[in-house]
Specification:
5 helices, mainly alpha, two-stranded antiparallel ribbon
Length: 165
Protein backbone atom coordinates (compact mmCIF):
# COMPACT_ATOMS: atom_id res chain seq x y z
CA UNK A 1 0.00 0.00 0.00
CA UNK A 2 1.42 3.37 -0.91
CA UNK A 3 2.35 5.90 1.76
CA UNK A 4 -0.38 8.26 0.53
CA UNK A 5 -3.02 5.55 0.79
CA UNK A 6 -1.80 4.51 4.25
CA UNK A 7 -1.96 8.14 5.39
CA UNK A 8 -5.48 8.48 3.96
CA UNK A 9 -6.63 5.35 5.81
CA UNK A 10 -5.16 6.62 9.07
CA UNK A 11 -6.69 10.10 8.73
CA UNK A 12 -10.08 8.73 7.59
CA UNK A 13 -10.12 6.17 10.39
CA UNK A 14 -9.27 8.82 12.98
CA UNK A 15 -12.05 11.04 11.61
CA UNK A 16 -14.57 8.19 11.71
CA UNK A 17 -13.61 7.40 15.32
CA UNK A 18 -14.19 11.06 16.28
CA UNK A 19 -17.52 11.17 14.44
CA UNK A 20 -18.68 7.88 15.96
CA UNK A 21 -17.91 9.19 19.46
CA UNK A 22 -20.51 11.93 18.90
CA UNK A 23 -23.23 9.55 17.65
CA UNK A 24 -26.03 8.15 19.78
CA UNK A 25 -25.53 4.72 21.36
CA UNK A 26 -25.78 1.81 18.91
CA UNK A 27 -25.29 3.98 15.81
CA UNK A 28 -22.77 2.71 13.25
CA UNK A 29 -20.78 4.56 10.63
CA UNK A 30 -19.25 3.64 7.27
CA UNK A 31 -17.24 5.51 4.67
CA UNK A 32 -17.35 4.42 1.05
CA UNK A 33 -15.16 5.97 -1.61
CA UNK A 34 -15.41 4.90 -5.21
CA UNK A 35 -14.26 6.09 -8.59
CA UNK A 36 -16.70 5.08 -11.35
CA UNK A 37 -15.16 2.48 -13.60
CA UNK A 38 -12.15 1.94 -11.32
CA UNK A 39 -13.07 -0.67 -8.71
CA UNK A 40 -9.41 -1.04 -7.77
CA UNK A 41 -9.62 2.43 -6.22
CA UNK A 42 -12.57 1.63 -3.96
CA UNK A 43 -12.20 2.12 -0.23
CA UNK A 44 -14.66 0.95 2.42
CA UNK A 45 -14.10 1.78 6.10
CA UNK A 46 -16.61 0.37 8.58
CA UNK A 47 -17.35 0.51 12.29
CA UNK A 48 -16.80 -2.69 14.21
CA UNK A 49 -20.00 -4.69 14.30
CA UNK A 50 -21.48 -2.90 11.28
CA UNK A 51 -23.95 -5.14 9.42
CA UNK A 52 -23.61 -4.73 5.64
CA UNK A 53 -27.25 -5.71 5.04
CA UNK A 54 -28.36 -2.88 7.36
CA UNK A 55 -26.27 -0.42 5.33
CA UNK A 56 -28.05 -1.55 2.15
CA UNK A 57 -31.43 -1.28 3.90
CA UNK A 58 -30.57 2.24 5.05
CA UNK A 59 -29.58 3.26 1.51
CA UNK A 60 -32.81 1.75 0.23
CA UNK A 61 -34.88 3.76 2.74
CA UNK A 62 -32.98 6.88 1.63
CA UNK A 63 -33.74 6.48 -2.06
CA UNK A 64 -31.63 3.63 -3.47
CA UNK A 65 -33.86 2.22 -6.18
CA UNK A 66 -34.24 -1.40 -7.17
CA UNK A 67 -34.62 -0.08 -10.71
CA UNK A 68 -30.98 0.99 -10.93
CA UNK A 69 -28.41 -1.16 -12.67
CA UNK A 70 -25.65 -2.76 -10.64
CA UNK A 71 -23.80 -6.05 -10.52
CA UNK A 72 -25.23 -7.12 -7.16
CA UNK A 73 -28.81 -6.87 -8.37
CA UNK A 74 -28.00 -8.59 -11.67
CA UNK A 75 -26.32 -11.45 -9.79
CA UNK A 76 -29.21 -11.72 -7.35
CA UNK A 77 -31.78 -11.81 -10.13
CA UNK A 78 -29.71 -14.37 -12.04
CA UNK A 79 -29.85 -16.54 -8.91
CA UNK A 80 -33.64 -16.15 -8.65
CA UNK A 81 -34.12 -16.98 -12.33
CA UNK A 82 -31.78 -19.95 -11.96
CA UNK A 83 -33.70 -21.23 -8.95
CA UNK A 84 -36.95 -21.02 -10.95
CA UNK A 85 -35.34 -22.88 -13.86
CA UNK A 86 -34.03 -25.60 -11.53
CA UNK A 87 -37.47 -25.85 -9.93
CA UNK A 88 -39.01 -26.20 -13.37
CA UNK A 89 -36.62 -29.07 -14.06
CA UNK A 90 -37.21 -30.57 -10.61
CA UNK A 91 -33.53 -30.66 -9.65
CA UNK A 92 -30.98 -28.83 -7.46
CA UNK A 93 -33.52 -27.95 -4.77
CA UNK A 94 -32.07 -25.41 -2.30
CA UNK A 95 -31.35 -26.56 1.26
CA UNK A 96 -34.08 -26.16 3.87
CA UNK A 97 -34.60 -22.53 4.87
CA UNK A 98 -32.68 -21.08 1.91
CA UNK A 99 -34.10 -17.87 0.38
CA UNK A 100 -34.04 -19.47 -3.09
CA UNK A 101 -36.64 -22.08 -2.08
CA UNK A 102 -39.47 -19.65 -2.83
CA UNK A 103 -38.26 -19.22 -6.41
CA UNK A 104 -37.58 -22.95 -6.82
CA UNK A 105 -41.18 -23.61 -5.69
CA UNK A 106 -42.50 -21.16 -8.29
CA UNK A 107 -40.60 -22.95 -11.07
CA UNK A 108 -41.71 -26.38 -9.79
CA UNK A 109 -45.35 -25.25 -9.56
CA UNK A 110 -45.33 -23.89 -13.10
CA UNK A 111 -43.79 -27.10 -14.43
CA UNK A 112 -46.37 -29.24 -12.61
CA UNK A 113 -49.20 -27.09 -13.99
CA UNK A 114 -47.75 -27.36 -17.51
CA UNK A 115 -47.42 -31.15 -17.17
CA UNK A 116 -51.03 -31.39 -15.97
CA UNK A 117 -52.27 -29.29 -18.90
CA UNK A 118 -50.27 -31.35 -21.38
CA UNK A 119 -51.69 -34.59 -19.96
CA UNK A 120 -55.22 -33.17 -20.20
CA UNK A 121 -54.64 -31.98 -23.77
CA UNK A 122 -53.24 -35.38 -24.78
CA UNK A 123 -56.26 -37.14 -23.26
CA UNK A 124 -58.69 -34.81 -25.04
CA UNK A 125 -56.85 -35.23 -28.31
CA UNK A 126 -56.91 -39.04 -27.99
CA UNK A 127 -60.64 -39.00 -27.18
CA UNK A 128 -61.41 -36.64 -30.05
CA UNK A 129 -59.46 -38.89 -32.39
CA UNK A 130 -61.36 -41.95 -31.12
CA UNK A 131 -64.68 -40.14 -31.67
CA UNK A 132 -63.62 -39.22 -35.19
CA UNK A 133 -62.70 -42.81 -35.95
CA UNK A 134 -66.01 -44.10 -34.60
CA UNK A 135 -68.06 -41.56 -36.56
CA UNK A 136 -66.11 -42.35 -39.71
CA UNK A 137 -66.69 -46.10 -39.31
CA UNK A 138 -70.42 -45.62 -38.67
CA UNK A 139 -70.95 -43.54 -41.81
CA UNK A 140 -73.58 -40.85 -42.04
CA UNK A 141 -71.57 -38.22 -40.22
CA UNK A 142 -71.69 -34.45 -40.57
CA UNK A 143 -68.64 -33.29 -42.57
CA UNK A 144 -68.62 -29.94 -40.72
CA UNK A 145 -68.11 -31.77 -37.43
CA UNK A 146 -65.30 -33.84 -38.87
CA UNK A 147 -63.58 -30.77 -40.31
CA UNK A 148 -63.91 -28.83 -37.04
CA UNK A 149 -62.66 -31.80 -35.02
CA UNK A 150 -59.71 -32.34 -37.33
CA UNK A 151 -58.83 -28.65 -37.08
CA UNK A 152 -59.01 -28.89 -33.28
CA UNK A 153 -56.71 -31.93 -33.33
CA UNK A 154 -54.18 -30.01 -35.45
CA UNK A 155 -54.16 -27.21 -32.85
CA UNK A 156 -53.69 -29.77 -30.07
CA UNK A 157 -50.90 -31.49 -32.03
CA UNK A 158 -49.12 -28.15 -32.57
CA UNK A 159 -49.35 -27.30 -28.87
CA UNK A 160 -48.19 -30.77 -27.81
CA UNK A 161 -45.25 -30.66 -30.23
CA UNK A 162 -43.79 -27.77 -28.18
CA UNK A 163 -43.31 -30.07 -25.19
CA UNK A 164 -41.35 -33.29 -24.97
CA UNK A 165 -43.39 -34.88 -22.20
Amino acid sequence: MSAILERFHRVANDALVKISETLWPGAKIALVIYTPGKPEEEIVLKDQGLVDDEVVSTLRRRGLSIDGDNTYKRDLLDCAVGAMAFGSQGNNQPPAGHWGQRFWDIGRGEAEAREELIAALKLNRENLHACQATIHLCGGFDPAYVNDAQAAMKIADAALAKFAI
